[in-house]
Design goal:
alpha/beta; Rossmann fold; eight-stranded mixed beta sheet; 8 strands; globular
Length: about 210
């Protein structure tokens, strides 16, 4: 992504976890760990939406770690329907950001996994920002977010998402009174609207 990209080999319960770390030019404000979409449908840490999220975080002065879930790329293991994947993400956090400012984000299946990682970490670990994009609320049980985190959380969804319906995300968000930012005409992968997505995320990170 930039000249400061570093390839990492981390350790998870299923074996090696392949990861990439992108550092900003200026001193880092903290570490953001990002999760990718569904592994069985081609999701990897190189997904365009995940890369867009990473660019937004780096642009705002954060160090970003993207990683491949178990069974993807060079990461060991096999798909575990989100359960093992959440443990993978917790292992990544423990190794790349054991202390200091931490932010979490995910796209699609990765947003579902991230919600459970947030629930596992908070409030014992402070989370500075949370970003969930195209949250897979239609096929998975997304964890609710602690009300204390709502102001630090950005939930973005495309109005015309035909992979995860906007209605399913609203059904998840409504009982929590958690706002959802809807991108007019946006599809699941935000084709043609990735610069807008990056801008929305950057605005949230700077708020």
């Amino acid at each position: 992504m930039n000249v400061h990209t570093e390839r990492l080999s981390l350790q998870g319960e299923a074996g090696v976890i392949e990861a990439l770390r992108d550092a900003p030019q200026e001193p880092s404000r903290g570490v953001a760990v990002l999760a990718h979409p569904h592994p069985l449908f081609g999701g990897t840490m190189d997904n365009k939406v995940v890369q867009t999220l990473a660019r937004a975080w780096v642009q705002c002065g954060w160090t970003v770690v993207r990683f491949n879930f178990r069974g993807v790329g060079a990461s060991a293991g096999t798909h575990d329907h989100g359960v093992g994947e959440a443990r993978d993400m917790l292992q990544v956090v423990a190794q790349v950001a054991p202390t200091g400012p931490l932010a979490l984000g995910g796209f699609s299946f990765g947003a579902f996994v991230t919600s459970h990682v947030v629930a596992a970490l908070y409030p014992a670990r402070e989370l500075h920002k949370v970003v969930l994009v195209g949250t897979a609320a239609q096929r998975f049980t997304v964890a609710p977010l602690d009300p204390e985190l709502h102001e630090r959380t950005l939930v973005v969804h495309g109005e015309a998402d035909d992979t995860v319906s906007l209605a399913s995300v609203m059904d998840w968000a409504r009982p929590q009174s958690l706002p959802v930012l809807v991108v007019p005409g946006g599809g699941h992968f935000f084709h043609g609207q990735l610069p807008l997505l990056r801008s929305l995320v950057a605005r949230h990170l700077r708020a």
